[in-house]
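name: query_chain
kind: protein
chains: 1
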Amino acid sequence: MKRNAIALTGGIGSGKSAVGNYLRNKGFVVVDCDQISRQIATEPQVLSQVEDLLGKGFVVNGQLDRAKIRNVVFCDKLLHQKYSQIFHNRVKQVLIDIIEQSNGVVFVEIPLISAFDFSWQQIWLVERDLQTRVDAVVKRDGVSAQNVMNIVSKQQIATNYTVKIDNNGTLDELFKQVDSLLQANNLL
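structure:
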């Protein structure tokens, strides 16, 4: 059964958050899976699992040392899979709870759409050229271009998308595409 949820997906720096924020401003429910993951990362069981996997130096004062984790996890495929699995099932359950409690369509910002099996109403893929993505993330997060490329290499971009949104222009052009999709889906 398809749920009343539309996925907003794309690689790091593609513009998922820009689309999500635009939809929020229009009054839609938008769930950010990265935010859910950050909330889950404060749970004692999750912190313990991360320590067991990576070691005590990766959890400091009850919080994940995200910079240290990013530098290690995205350089090792097996470690990345194990680390991600700690979060995926829990994120999925929180997401299902939110969708089931909502009356209308729910938009879900989700970088790794392949992370778990889910029955989406539609999948909207936000695309942007690679160098622009890398430059944006380096500026936004204060990390190296190599760090961003390590993340890019681990992300599997959706191939089963319903719609592709081109984010290589201006924000106005991006938002016009979103408005057209909302109209086409009778959501405006």
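note: The longest helix spans residues 77-101.
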